[in-house]
Specification:
Elements: H1 2-19, H2 22-44, H3 51-54, H4 60-68, E1 73-78, E2 83-86, H5 88-93, H6 106-118, E3 120-126, E4 129-136, E5 142-147, H7 155-164, H8 166-173, E6 177-181, E7 187-190, H9 192-198, H10 210-213, E8 214-216, E9 221-224, E10 234-240, E11 250-256, H11 268-276, E12 280-284, E13 290-293, H12 295-300, H13 320-332, E14 337-344, E15 347-362, E16 365-371, H14 375-419, H15 429-452, E17 461-463, H16 465-480, E18 484-490, E19 497-499, H17 501-520, E20 525-534, H18 536-542, E21 552-558, H19 566-569, H20 589-599, E22 603-609, E23 613-621, E24 648-652, H21 656-668, E25 672-676, H22 679-687, E26 694-698, H23 706-716, E27 722-726, E28 742-746, H24 751-763
Helix pairs in contact: 1-2, 14-15, 14-21, 15-20, 16-17, 17-20, 21-24, 22-23
Amino acid sequence: MPALVAAAAASGAVLFWVIGAPRFALLFFAGFVAMLVAVFVLERRGARIPAAEAVAVPDLSLLGMTLSLLGDAAVLTDGDARILVANPAYRDRFPDAPSPLSLGDSALAEAKAIAWRDGSASAALDPDSPVDIERAGARGDLLLWRFPCKLQPDPISVGARRIAGAAGSRLASAGVLAAFVDHDGRVLGANKLFTDRAIAAGAGAEAPLFADLVDLGDDNCARLVAEGEQGGPLRAVLVPIDPTTNSAAGTFLLFEQGELAGNNAVGANLQALLDVLPVGLALVDRDGRFITANKTFHTAGGLKGSLPAYPGDLVVKDDKGAVADAIRRNARGPAMSGDLAVRLASQPAEPVALTIAGLRGLGDAAVLLLLKDNSEEAKLKRQVAQATKMQAVGQLAGGVAHDFNNILTAIIGHCDLMLMRHTPGDSDYDDIQQIRSNSNRAAGLTRQLLAFSRQQTLRPQVLQLPDVVSEVSHLLKRLLGETVELQLKHGRDLGSVRADPGQLEQVIVNLAVNARDAMMSKGGGVLSIQTYAVSADQVAELGSDILPTAAYSAISVEDTGTGIAPGILGKVFEPFFTTKEVGKGTGLGLSTVYGIVKQSGGFIFADSKVGKGTRFTIYFPVHAAEKGEASAPRAAKPQDGELWGTGTVLLVEDEPMVRTVAERALTRHGYTVITATNGEEALEVINRGEPIELLISDVVMPLMDGPTMVRKARKSRPNLPILFMSGYAEEQLRNSIDIDNVAFLPKPFSVQELAEAARKVLSAK
């Protein structure tokens, strides 16, 4: 018997030493020594006990008592992982586990094999559940399995730090006193507002009792002890750290006691706190009725007047049931939260996310509703999508127009060359004129595409809007007909603007023609064109996100036609979009207007009411004229006899059809023409020392573009006159052709226009 007890004591000592309990290990070791002495005494008396039998069978009941002292789950198994002893923590944590190996996958079996071989190993059931395995026993034939629990942060320490940190500062900024108390009612953390008002400056380092600082009444009406009777009443709210227990630990919130309008009233400070938040918040009681809501919630919910009785009144009929059911579950069940996609009655086309969260310990409020105001975000998304679409279409239109201009240049040029060989009355003369006329119409379409994409060539001048309207009014009277009355009205003190007068006239004509067509179905109407000044203060009052605050000169074109439906009002500036019948419009009129206005630095807005009419308003920024600036007079158009010239012209053009037309046109006007297909060939001609009076070059070419070639040519011939030609607008190419003393000719051009440009450049030499 002493030998068996000694064996058990030895096993207990080894076990406690392995698990890190030295005191219990020493205690069992002392028992082991005592039993050895007893064995020695018995042996002297002739009652020898074999040593092998002393450690053959451990005392499992004693080991079970030892393991029960551990806080972690632990189990003792044999080499095959069959359970010999398990402590209560193991049985509570794994009630259905016949063996530790049944708790995990192959990783646990591998760790068991490593522990049997090396003496110890570790594994994990999951990231938060480690497993430690140790080989134990006097003969090393047992395995000790430990399942330590991962330490969780102390919620009391975390809560105290938050109230003393940023969260408490935000509450203090809203006038809310906050203090965190532990289970004993001691203040472990507080925001600065509570500290300044409730805790004396000379208070000791020990955490004070909340009851010594705040006098709580039976009706939740509290007063600060430090302020005495002079202090105003406060409304106290306890937010417990664990609502499932009766613990007093939690956060005390103290609000100024405002005028209460009943049991469901919310303090003035709490309402002020809710109103400053950027998220729409509303409180709902256990019966599903609104208690209060902040201003953002009113805006996000589309509420024009007072708050309705129930949250379901905010949404469409189909969503009322889902909202009521979610509020009922959160109000009476366990506190939880979740998002619900609903459609507001004020904007049923766009679903919004309504967050519903259960509340506990905040008076009559049982449910918190969160609703984000997405109106501005949705508006910005639509504006960005529209701007992106217009930009993409503009780039496509500009590229198509550029390539088409090269084709039209060749067609118009060949027509001009053939007309030089025919006279009126010839059989082919009328056909050639018809081809040329149709080509010019096609060129007009390309100019409209370039205008929309803001890539056309403008000749801006400083002008007054009333002068432009007066100039075009005579043409408008003939275009509008007798059924449409034209009314002109000009304001005072309009600032000058900088725009192309010809393009601006086209804008007014296009708007007037569209207005005339819109009034035809009503048998006529009134077209009003008005010019007026808009100050920077008036622009600021408009509150537009698009129109910058500055001084503008505006022109409005308003008709009394059928109007434009709201669904298509945002598409009227898109190219090829038209509301007219098939064959009665290209859909490029308003897109051209849009492009000209934007390229001139202006802004255009459309406003329409179905059945009452449409108004287009254009804002041009007032031009700050520099000293000595004046409108450039238009040069007199030279006569055909003045277009003849002499000298050698180097023509550089990669398009064969354009190069052929330009070469023949210049040759017919007396010039000697040398051609090159790209910039490298042109430099070879220049380096040969050919006498060249004029260099005419395309801008965009493969291998080497025109500006690069000109810069290299100017090194050897600095005074060489240059004439660039391109299907792109001069403004679009200004960065690449930023070279002194160069002229520009836009495509498509006629033979006469090419001869005029060449003569003008040579005359300025």
